[in-house]
Amino acid sequence: MTKARVNIETALRRYRPGEAITEQLSEADLAHFRKRGFIIEEDDVAGIQEEGSLDGWADGVPGTGVVEMGDEPDGDAYKDEAELNRMNKAEIVEYASKIGLELEESKLKTDLVSAVLDFVGEKSEEEK
What we know:
Elements: E1 3-4, E2 8-9, E3 14-15, H1 27-36, E4 39-40, H2 42-51, H3 81-85, H4 89-98, H5 109-127
Antiparallel strand pairs: 1-4, 2-3
Helix pairs in contact: 4-5
């Protein structure tokens, strides 16, 4: 069984974190979701029931809690575009400062989101 770790929207349906993905996905889609940690495969799901969610929270639903961050989160801890778009400008600026990026709240929200995503992309490339 495959479960969504984050919000996933396919051509047929939207899946919330923790929901089982019931439709047949292409291998390309599955590879994309696996690479980015967007899904949990059957083996991973068994561990969640015993240990809480993968993000360290006891809610049992992965991807719903905020990952505790030190100076720098690991690659899976960065927020994606959908999560950033649900935040207001002040929250985006605060999140950016936590990951090492200084932004001004006076900018447009779309510019703030783009700046954070660009920064995260650059950090991910550096880690490789």
